[in-house]
Amino acid sequence: MQKRALGLDFGEKTVGVAVSDGFLWTAGSLCVIRRKNETDVSETLEKIASYVKEYDIGDIVLGYPKNMNNTEGPRCEKTRAFQQRLQKKFPNIIIHLFDERLTSLAAERIMLEADLSRKKRGEIIDAMAAAQILQGYLDSRAR
Question: What pTM did the predictor assign?
Answer without folding.
Answer: 0.86
